[in-house]
Write a structure and sequence with these properties.
globular, alpha/beta, 5 strands, 5-stranded parallel beta sheet, single chain, Rossmann fold, 2 domains
Length: 215
Amino acid sequence: MKNTDKLAKILWDYLQMHQKLVKSDAIIVLGSRDVRVAERGSELFIEGMAPLLIFSGGFGRFTKNVFHKPEAEIFADIALEMGVPMDKIIIENKSTNSGENALCVKKLLEEKKLPHKTFILVQKPYMERRAVATFNQQWPQAEVLVTSPQISYEDYHMGYIDKDAIISVMVGDLQRIIEYPKLGYQTYQEVPEKVLAAYNALIDLGYTNYLIGSN
């Protein structure tokens, strides 16, 4: 494994939370370009982990010029193809980031008068930790667990997306874990020294495209 991969793997391992899932009121699948997230959420529903499957996402930074309709709608189509009944699916198709995911889903469930206390969040592997921190800040009454497609770092990029782009995104996500609590977007999480060292080394290597303020 190249040194870059070793550094990236340190971030990858930290950014996942490896939580044990329990049955919950609903599964919330957070929109993205990675349709494997929709597949993971649908699998959990089919396994009986929750009676409702919620897809949340409009057009984000990585999908606005790629998808022909909102992320949540594309993900819902995948769920239907996998056998999830339409009447068990809820679509929230306006949010554009994790904070809006939480607030928009909360409002939608309140309007529908549906149970909304315990949730399983489904996100990309390297966004597990940030998803939990965001929901804990924006919707503190909710009890959330998180999971993601069960894919290793080594296999995640295969034939799907450029590895260097993923590393840059992970660097940017870790920066947000560090900086966003100061802005009130997320709860604080301790970042181990080993992870900080890998993060800074990757920045020095030029993985800066997704840092706050970058284009």
